[in-house]
Write a structure and sequence with these properties.
By secondary structure, the protein is of the alpha/beta class. Helices cover 57% and strands 10% of the residues. It has 14 helices and five strands. A five-stranded mixed β-sheet has the order 1-3-2-4-5, sandwiched between helices. A hairpin with a 2-residue loop joins β4 and β5. α5 runs parallel beside α7, α7 packs parallel to α9 and α11 packs antiparallel against α12. The protein is elongated and about 90 Å long.
């Protein structure tokens, strides 16, 4: 039987003292007494394996095939299956007979086995999560530490540039993005530069309320439609902006030398190919083109 990790193994009469008793002086060993004909055993075993894996080596799981290892069965007086026994410091210290829910098994193990600490989260992933939640300052603080250790990290530089842009530090953001020399993250860099462009453009445009008033008077005002989309992009109102740009493209694809089409592609870069809005609007743009 294939074992999923080195912490899980079959124990036999020949090696039981070494694999279980001796090992238990170093790490607790959970022994699963099972048999091929025992349906509850087969239901319990995958759950025990999952529990053992979750302890990442702090708990060992030994499996004893009771049909093949009658001497071990007799030695420990196993009378029903499944039976599970926890060994620690060479002695059985706890256990249960019959199938049990995972919560009960973990509760039994809790006093005897130390759960390993969770792996430290990658600081860049943390910063990305904070940025996506709108916690720009927190993301920026993490990125400063990260870039202090490695100022050539292209992905961190790009995200730091986006943080600066969101705070209105447009010149500083441009300088950071210009410092990215790696070709590895071209799409992310193009997206960050697009964001910076939208923020710069929005600063010189009429206010949203004024643009909406113009459109209320003249729904065919293409310039107002485009400028409103840019204002929405600067505020991360991506769905509204994409909808407006696509409608403008369909109505007047030649507007300002194809600007709505170019801007749609910039937004796709900004959001990334995996974003559901990109998937939807890329399909709709294709249908409009062809």
């Amino acid at each position: 039987m294939t074992q999923p990790t080195p912490y899980i193994f079959d124990a036999t009469t020949a090696d039981f003292d070494q694999s279980v008793i001796e090992n238990s002086f170093h790490k607790p060993v959970l022994v699963d007494f099972w048999a091929e004909w025992c349906a509850p055993c087969k239901a319990l075993m995958p759950m025990l394996q999952q529990i053992a894996e979750s302890y990442q080596g702090e708990l060992l799981l030994a499996k004893v095939d009771c049909d093949a290892e009658q001497d071990i069965v007799a030695r420990f007086g196993i009378r029903s299956l499944p039976t599970v026994v926890l060994f620690k410091d060479g002695q059985p210290v706890d256990g249960f007979a019959g199938a049990q829910p995972e919560s009960a098994v973990r509760k039994m193990l809790e006093p005897h086995v130390q759960m390993p600490p969770p792996a430290a989260a990658d600081p860049l992933e943390q910063a990305e999560a904070l940025f996506s939640e709108g916690r720009i300052g927190d993301a920026e603080a993490l990125l400063k530490v990260l870039l202090g250790e490695d100022n050539s990290n292209a992905k961190a530089l790009i995200l730091y540039g986006r943080c600066l842009a969101e705070r209105g530090e447009l010149s500083e953001a441009q300088a950071v993005l210009d410092a990215v020399k790696s070709d590895e993250h071209k799409a992310a860099l193009a997206g960050a530069k697009a964001q910076l462009t939208f923020l710069r453009q929005a600063a010189d445009l009429p206010e949203v309320a004024d643009l909406k008033a113009r459109l209320a008077q003249n729904p065919q005002d293409d310039e107002a439609h485009y400028q409103l989309a840019v204002q929405q992009l600067s505020r991360q109102q991506y769905e509204a902006a994409l909808e407006g740009l696509l409608k403008l493209f369909i109505r007047n694809r030649g507007y300002s030398e194809g600007l709505p089409h170019k801007t749609l592609l910039q937004v796709f870069d900004l959001l990334g190919n995996d974003h559901p809005l990109v998937t939807s609007y890329r399909r709709r743009l294709f249908a409009a083109l062809y």
